[in-house]
Design a protein that fits this description.
The structure is a single chain. The chain has 236 residues and is an alpha+beta fold. Helices cover 38% and strands 33% of the residues. The protein is built from six helices and ten strands, in the order H-E-E-H-H-H-H-H-E-E-E-E-E-E-E-E. It has helices at residues 6-11, 33-41, 44-67, 70-78, 81-100, 109-130, and strands spanning 14-15, 21-22, 136-140, 144-151, 157-176, 183-194, 200-206, 211-213, 216-226, 229-235. Helix 3 packs antiparallel against helix 5. It is elongated and about 70 Å long.
C-alpha cells in the first residue's frame, strides 16, 4: 500500500523519534522597518507628550504676546521652527494612527472622522502659513495707508505689498494701569475705504480683537509716541 500523501501529512500530527506527538511551531511574523516606524509614530504616549508640549508652547506665546506684541510672539513661538516641527510631528502622529488601524470598519467610523478632521485643520493651517501675506502698517493719527511692509529680524525691509483697501487712523487710545505709565491696553479707531467700490466705513482694532476684511486681518501689534503724536502699528 502507498503511504499517506503530502496532504494527509499536513493534516495529521507527526511523531518524533521518541514516539511522542510533535506539535508544529507557528511561523513568527516579522514586521518590516516601515511598519515599526508607523507603530512608533502612532503611539498614544507620543500623542500625549506632543499635546502637552504644544499646550505649553501656546500658553507661552499668549503670555509673550500680552507683554510684547503679536510679531514677537509669532517670531519666537507661533511661527518658530521648533513649534512648526511639533505641529508637523503631531500631524504625522494623527495620520499614522488612522493608517495603523486600516481597514477601519463601521466600528471605527467615529475615530476616523475625528482624526481626519484634525488632519484637515492642520492642513488648512499649513496652507495659510505657507501662502500667507504679512507685514506691518505704521500710521500716525490722521494718516492713511494701504501698503504693508515686511521686515526681517534686523529691521531690514524685504517686501512691500498693497492692500485692496486703505486704512486711515482716526484715533489711537492708550490705557494704563492706575497710578503707573504701564500700558494696560490700546485701541485703534480706523476708517477703511475699499479700493474697488470706494465704500468707507469705521472699524476698531485692539488687543486680541483683529479686524478682517477681504481676506486680510489687521492685528493691534504695537504703538509709538513721538513729539506729542501717537502712532499705531498694525500687523497684517
Amino acid at each position: 500500500m502507498r503511504g499517506p500523501g503530502p496532504l494527509l501529512d499536513t493534516l495529521h500530527p507527526k511523531l518524533d523519534h521518541s514516539g511522542f506527538l510533535r506539535a508544529s511551531r507557528p511561523i513568527a511574523r516579522k514586521d518590516g522597518p516601515l511598519k515599526k516606524l508607523v507603530d512608533t509614530l502612532a503611539s498614544l504616549k507620543l500623542a500625549v507628550i506632543l499635546l502637552v508640549v504644544l499646550l505649553i508652547g501656546l500658553s507661552a506665546g499668549t503670555i509673550l504676546e500680552s507683554r510684547t506684541d503679536a510679531a514677537t510672539a509669532g517670531r519666537l513661538v507661533y511661527y518658530s521652527w521648533w513649534f512648526l516641527a511639533l505641529e508637523g510631528l503631531f500631524a504625522a502622529n494623527v495620520a499614522c494612527s488612522v493608517a495603523n488601524l486600516f481597514p477601519w470598519g463601521k466600528k471605527r467610523v467615529g475615530f476616523v472622522v475625528t482624526h481626519a478632521s484634525l488632519l484637515l485643520i492642520l492642513a488648512g493651517a499649513a496652507l495659510t502659513y505657507f501662502g500667507k501675506v504679512e507685514g506691518q502698517l505704521h500710521l500716525y493719527e490722521g494718516e492713511s495707508g494701504s501698503t504693508i511692509v515686511e521686515a526681517d529680524a534686523h529691521g531690514n525691509v524685504v517686501a512691500r505689498r498693497d492692500l485692496p483697501f486703505t486704512v486711515k487712523l482716526d484715533d489711537f487710545v492708550l490705557e494704563t494701569y492706575p497710578g503707573t505709565m504701564r500700558p494696560s491696553g490700546y485701541l485703534s479707531r480706523i476708517e477703511v475705504t475699499d479700493a474697488d467700490t470706494g465704500k468707507t466705513f469705521p472699524a476698531k482694532v485692539w488687543m486680541n480683537h483683529p479686524f478682517s476684511y477681504r481676506g486680510f486681518s489687521l492685528f493691534q501689534s504695537s504703538y509709538e509716541q513721538q513729539g506729542g503724536r501717537e502712532a499705531t502699528v498694525l500687523a497684517v
